[in-house]
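Hi everyone,

Forwarding the result from last night's run.
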Amino acid sequence: MFRHTEHLQCEAKPEAPDALYAMKLQELIGDAVPTDSAGTPLNGKYVVASGNLLADFRANVAAEAQGRLQTARLYNMTDDPGFKEMLQFNLARDTVHQNMWPAAIAELQEDGLEGEIAPDALHEEEDQEHANTIWGLSDGTAAAEGRWASRPTSDGEHELRYLDDPEPLGGPTSVPPPDPELYGTFAGPGDEGSVQGAGKATKSGKGPADKVKEAFE
C-alpha cells in the first residue's frame, strides 16, 4: 500500500544509474510506474478482488511470496549500497505480509465467516467420487509416497487417496466436420459429430455461415 502523499517510504540514493537493473527493478514494482514490465498501461488487472475474502487472502499469500522471491534475486544482482538498503526494507515488508495474510485467514475461519475450502458451498452438489482422489499421471512411484497423497484432508471431510494409473473417464473423442465454406482440413468420416452439430448442418447444405445470413434476412 502506498500513501497518497509526497513522502517516500524509504530513502534510496543510488551511486550511479544502471538502465538494465532499472528494468529488472521495474518488473518487481510495476504497479509504481505507468506501465508493467511488458509495457501494458496500469489497469484493473492489478486488482485481485473476487469478493470472497478467503480466496483473495490466499492469493495475497502467494503474491507476497513471489514478491519476496524476486526481491531476494534482485538483492544479489546489485552491488549498489543504496539499492541494497532499499531492498532490505522491501524484504522485511514482504516478511511482514507473508505473516499477516495467514493470520487474517485464521481470523476469518475463527469468526465462522469462511471454512477451509473456498467457497464453503455446494459440497453436496460436487461429484463425491472425485473429491478425495489424487491422480497419478507421472512415471515412477515417488508421487505416491508424498504425505499429501494419502492423508486426512484439511477440511476434515475426506481422506486423500492416490490412484495409480487412473482410467480415462470418457471415450474416444469425435470431431464434427467443419463447414465446407471455412475450407478446414478434415480427414475424418463425413457422418461424425452430434446430430445437433456441424455434421447435420453440413449434410443439409446449411452451415453456420448460412444460419448467420438467415438471421439478418
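Residues 35 and 41 are 4 Å apart (CA to CA).

Cheers,
N.
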